[in-house]
Amino acid sequence: MFIVFNIFTNKNQLIYSPSIRISLLYSFNLLNFLLYKMASFHSYTLSISYFLIFSILFIPSHGAFVEEISDILTIKRSEKTSHLHFYFHDIVSGKNPSSIKVISPGGDGIYGFGKTFIFDDALTVGPNASSKVIGIAQGIYSIASQSELALLMVLTFEFIEGKYDGSSISILGRNSVPRDVREMPIVGGTGLFRFARGYALAHTFKFDINSGDATVEYNVFVQHY
User: Fold this and answer.
1) How does pLDDT run across 61-87, given as a tens digit for each residue?
2) Residue 154 to residue 190: CA distance in whole angstroms
3) Helix axes 43-57, 18-38, angle to 10 degrees
4) Which one of 27, 153, 187, 203 has the largest count of C-beta atoms within 10 Å of its C-beta?
């Protein structure tokens, strides 16, 4: 005896996305085959199995706006931790700076509270600006404290070399510049760094007090799949 379901109608206002339809059809075909082969025995066990499979897979996507993916149906992948080491070059001087001031409120005090910069800085394997470029850092930083030189950093490290070419890491955190080492959280990533989490350690390698140019060493520890 075969069971047939119509999953393409709009009955009861349930709309299913194409991926859910394919999963349901595959599951129903497999179920029919099992019922045909094993109908003469284990009927009670099959009924329970059918109920569990149907409960897991038959998740409606109302208006195709959201589709839930059960962990039971996903392929398990091992998580690993990668350590990335590079140098960040923030150039504010010269005719072609990589960082420019976009907000400079009046009466900003001794620390420049409220000043905001947008940047497109090179990431290199060594501390010299002439060393190999392995990526770019793009984002904004603002002086967010009235009592010390502390920055709010919103940035993305986009890599252009090696196996991480095209992948990126996003950071959002507080950077207290006077400290020797500052820690900021990784809030996500793309490409090979999807679902990334971890932290970045920043250390000022060189700062030119006259020009304002800075070279910052980064040690990034990121967990990803």
Assistant:
1) 555 566 666 655 455 678 999 999 999
2) 16
3) 180
4) 153
Rounded to whole angstroms, how far apart are CA atoms 152 and 122? 20
Rounded Cα distance between 85 and 220, Å, is 6
The backbone torsions φ and ψ at residue 168, rounded to the nearest 5 degrees and listed phi first, read -145, 160
Q: What is the four-CA torsion angle of 160, 102, 203, 156, rounded to 10 degrees?
A: -30
Q: Are 87 and 215 in contact (CB under 8 A)?
A: yes
Write down the pLDDT at residue 56: 47
Least trusted range by pLDDT, from 4-13, 115-124, 149-158: 4-13
Q: What is the four-CA torsion angle of 29, 31, 32, 35, rounded to 10 degrees? A: 160
Its pTM stands at 0.69
DSSP 109-148: TTTTTT-EEEEEEEEESSSSTTSPEEEEEEEEEEE--SSS
Helix, strand, coil distribution of the chain in percent, nearest 5: 25, 40, 40
Task: Report CA-CA distances (Å) from 52 to 24, 31, 120, 210.
Answer: 13, 12, 52, 69
CA distances from 28 to 34, 35, 50, 70, 142 (A): 10, 10, 9, 18, 56
